[in-house]
Amino acid sequence: MPRVKFHTLTEQMFYTLLCLTEECCGMDILDKVPEMTGQRVHVGSGTLYTLLEQFLEAGMIRETRVEGRRRSYILTDRGREMLRQEYERLCAQAADYRRIFGEEERE
């Protein structure tokens, strides 16, 4: 069975959308993702620009500015809702892990 698009988010998708809670362009995102994840997650430029197009088509982000080839984007309400749903899914997974292994919650 094929995966439903955006049913869950990859790390690259999640952090790209998270960057777009503030207006920024692709180059900003390429710099911000490794910074916010302690260099754990990187997004390649080809992947990023493909994701931005897909997010635009899905109404999860909108274009805010165009200066030559430089385009800026920001999260829409739909994108914010997708981030919230993914956050809740990840929290549920972490809670299941803690329940199974009897570990206390981390803050």
The number of distinct β-strands equals 3
Estimate what percentage of residues fall within beta strands.
Answer: 5-15%
Fraction of residues in H or I helices: 40-55%
What structural category characterises the helix and strand content? alpha+beta
Question: What's the end-to-end separation, in Å?
Answer: 37 Å
* CATH domain topology: Arc Repressor Mutant, subunit A
N to C succession of SSEs:
HEHHEEH
Report the CATH superfamily.
Answer: Winged helix-like DNA-binding domain superfamily/Winged helix DNA-binding domain
**What is the class in the CATH system?**
Mainly Alpha
Question: Rounded to an integer, what's the Rg over CA atoms?
Answer: 15 Å
Question: What is the count of structural domains?
Answer: 1
Instruction: Give me the CATH architecture, please.
Output: Orthogonal Bundle
Question: Which residues form runs of ≥5 with pLDDT under 50?
Answer: none
Number of helices: 4
Largest sheet: 3 strands, antiparallel
Gross morphology is: elongated
Would you write up a description of this structure?
The chain is α+β, with helices and mostly antiparallel strands. It has one domain (11-100): Arc Repressor Mutant, subunit A (Orthogonal Bundle), CATH 1.10.10. 54% of the residues lie in helices and 14% in strands. The chain contains four helices and three strands; from the N terminus they run αβααββα. Strands 1-3-2 form a three-stranded antiparallel sheet. α1 (11-19) packs across α2 (26-36) and α2 (26-36) crosses α3. It is elongated and about 55 Å long.
SSE layout and pairings?
Layout: H1 11-19, E1 24-25, H2 26-36, H3 45-57, E2 61-67, E3 70-75, H4 77-101
Antiparallel strand pairs: 1-3, 2-3
